[in-house]
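Duplicate of #3305? Posting structure anyway:
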């Protein structure tokens, strides 16, 4: 058994990227809503961009910043482990947004290495619109150390399973879901659109983008926690456990854990848990 350690650039922790600007137009925001089967009127008419649209402005920046600290031999082994959004206000068409990102932590695990990257997005007036933590898990990485911050906590309390969920929301992916999401989100990874390439990567076929699944669950949670008021969502965090496929129907089970606070997980109709440790918080 090899004990050789991979070399991560810990000097990149806390090193903020150059700013990237993104102009939000109604057409792009509505396209994202339609690509995620969003049924919330304020998203479909362009009043607000859907909450998970927040990943679109800094998407490439998050990837580039994360990869900058990772050794070349591990770059293709990345899995999207977790995503944690903190919303100060919804994104609206007409916003001109500026995003910056920095790796905030690198932590070795028994079977890989976790890299956590924070992005902050401000509007033209300098006000913070949202911040988000992207956690990349690099399979097979070996680094018996830790530096910086661990990913933020949003662990599901197993005691909740002693009672039935307060709500269960059923949603169905369309056959062309991943193609529509790839175009609207700007995420062209072929494992989501090319069945042959997905199988070559050891997958059962095309898989749904994790953030697309998260967008579906955001609709579900808004419907439970703040019907008709998507602007009240202030935080949403998940751990991506397994990928879903376009053929799947998913069920999101929701437990109320306090005033404006909900825990959830999401399972396919084949019994595969695709999202765990879900947390949603709403302003009153």
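Output from current build:
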């Amino acid at each position: 058994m090899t004990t050789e350690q991979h070399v991560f650039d810990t000097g990149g922790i806390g090193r903020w990227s150059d700013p990237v600007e993104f102009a939000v137009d109604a057409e792009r925001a509505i396209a994202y809503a339609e690509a995620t089967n969003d049924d919330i009127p304020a998203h479909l008419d362009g009043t607000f961009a859907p909450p998970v649209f927040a990943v679109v402005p800094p998407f490439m920046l998050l990837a580039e910043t994360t990869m900058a600290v990772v050794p070349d031999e591990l770059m293709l082994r990345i899995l999207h482990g977790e995503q944690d959004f903190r919303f100060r206000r919804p994104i609206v068409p007409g916003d001109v947004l500026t995003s910056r990102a920095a790796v905030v932590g690198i932590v070795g695990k028994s079977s890989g290495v976790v890299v956590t990257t924070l992005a902050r997005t401000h509007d033209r007036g300098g006000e913070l619109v949202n911040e988000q933590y992207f956690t990349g898990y690099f399979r097979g990485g070996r680094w018996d150390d830790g530096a910086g911050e661990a990913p933020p906590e949003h662990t599901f309390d197993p005691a909740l399973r002693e009672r039935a969920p307060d709500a269960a929301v059923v949603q169905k992916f369309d056959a062309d879901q991943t193609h529509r999401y790839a175009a609207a989100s700007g995420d062209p990874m072929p494992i989501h659109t090319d069945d042959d390439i997905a199988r070559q990567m050891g997958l059962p076929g095309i898989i749904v983008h994790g953030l697309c699944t998260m967008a579906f669950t955001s609709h579900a949670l808004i419907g439970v926690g703040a019907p008709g008021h998507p602007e009240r969502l202030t935080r949403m965090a998940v751990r991506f456990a397994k990928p879903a496929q376009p053929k799947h129907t998913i069920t999101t089970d929701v437990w109320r854990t306090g005033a404006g606070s909900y825990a959830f997980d999401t399972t396919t109709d084949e019994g595969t848990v695709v999202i765990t440790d879900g947390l949603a918080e709403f302003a009153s």
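Confirmed duplicate; merging threads. The first helix runs from residue 26 to 35. The first strand starts at residue 20 and ends at 23.
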